[in-house]
Amino acid sequence: MTASRTIVLPVVLGLALALASCGKTARFEVADVTFCHGLTDDMQAEQPGNAFRPDETVYVSVTVKGRPRHGVVAAKFYYGDQFIAEASVDLGDANSGVIFSVGENTFVGYTLSHDNPFPVGEEYRAELFHDDEPIGKYPFRVVAGAD
């Protein structure tokens, strides 16, 4: 009987520590930002590339480490100093169906579509934010020919 208590005690302590850490807020971290020519159903990048034709839709896939339950990731698109568009994703909504996850990441996707062709240029960028705090600036370009 003593041997079984010795084994059960470490298991119970480990489980208690694991459950106690569930409520803690993990550090938010972006693993990757990829411009691409399409997104999968789960917002992963398809056909990566940061050069787009003037009439082409611009896609961005952001890989967030882990499965955060709180926070908003926003993308603001610019041409030089001119603001083009903004979109945001609530991580709580993105991960609402996840009950248990080990070693998985969250993929957040943004689509920049437009009615009129973009001017050819190198001055395009997406600025990413987490809860209004800057994450980084990521350049892309619009080119006259195919990628």
Main features:
disordered N terminus; Immunoglobulin-like; 4-stranded antiparallel sheet; globular; 5-stranded mixed sheet
CATH topology: Immunoglobulin-like
| Total number of helices | 2
Q: Could you state the oligomeric state of the chains shown?
A: single chain
Number of domains: 1
- Fraction in beta strands: over 45%
Give the class-level CATH name.
Mainly Beta
Short overview:
It contains two helices and nine strands.
Descriptive notes:
The protein is an alpha+beta fold and 147 residues long. It has a single domain, classed as Immunoglobulins (Immunoglobulin-like, Sandwich), CATH 2.60.40.10. The protein contains 2 helices and 9 strands. The protein has a 5-stranded mixed β-sheet. It has a 4-stranded antiparallel β-sheet with strand order 2-1-4-7, with no helix packed on it. Strand 8 and strand 9 form a beta hairpin. The longest helix has 21 residues. The radius of gyration is 21 Å and the shape is globular.
